[in-house]
Amino acid sequence: KHKLAVEDAVLEPWVEDVLRERSRAGEKPEELMDHLGDGYQGYAQMANLLCEWHAMLGDDEKALDREVRGYLKAVILRDFSPTVADSVFEKAGQTPQWLDKMTAEPEWRDLIYELSEMHPTCNLMQYAMAEISQKGLEADKAGPEAAAANLAIFRTMFREAMVALCDPSKEPSTDDLEDLKRLACHNEHAYVYVLSVLQSLSGEPLGPSMRRVAQELQRELASRGKGRQAELFHTAVSGGAAHTQACAALTSMMGTRKTNPSDILTLHKLYAGEGGGGRPPPRQVSFG
Predict the structure, then answer these.
(1) Looking at the whole model, is its pTM more than 0.90?
(2) Range of the domain at 175
C-alpha cells in the first residue's frame, strides 16, 4: 500500500517529506493527490462538522468546545509517545507553529504541564516548558518533575515559594511550606540547591526562619527514608564536615531525640575551646 494512501496521511507530520521524495522519484502530482485522496477519512473535519450541527440545533457552543477539547486532551495523555514527539520536533528544525499556539493558551499549557510531569526527559516537553518560562506564562504551575528537568522553571518555582514563606504581610501557611517541601525533596540535586540557598541566607535578618525551614526539609527527607542522606547534605552545606566531633555529638542526640551527658560534655569542651585545636566550631555547625 502506498504510504500516502494510509488513513488521513494528509494530517501526518511526515507527509511533506514523502511528497517531495515521491515527486523526485518521478511520480506525477496527480498520482500523489489520488493516493492522498484514497486514504482520506476526514475525522477531524467530521468532528468539526458535528459540532457545527449541534450548535445549529441549539447546543451551547462553549460547552461543545470544552467537551471536544477535554476528549482530545484525554487521548493525547493516553497515547503520547515522547520518542515520536522528539523525532517530529528534531526533524522540524524550528519551533512548530502549533506549539506556539499551545503555549499561548492556558488550557493547552495545562496539558503541557501534565505531559512534562509524565515525560520529564522528553526534549519537546523540556523545550515547551522553557518557552513557557521565558514568556512568563505561569511556569510556576509546573510540577516537581518538570521543574527538576529545567533550571529556569525550578528557579521560578523556588522564588515563588520563598516569597510566599517570607512575605512579612502574612503568616506563612502550611501550604506554602508543603509546596517548598515537594519542590526541594523531589531529588538530591534540588535538595542541595535549596539547602545551599537557605544556608547563604542564614546570616541575614531572616536567618532563624531559614534555619527553621531547613530543619523542616530535613525532617521531610527523613520521613521519606533518607534521613542519613539529609544529615550528610546538611553537614556538607553548613561546613560541619570540618568539625566532626561536634557533628557526631549533635547527630547522636538528634537520632535519639534525647540529650545525654557524654555528648553535652563533648559540645561544652569544644565550644569552650578545650578541644578541636582550641578553635570552637561555628554556632551553626549544621541546620539540625
Answers:
(1) no
(2) 150-238
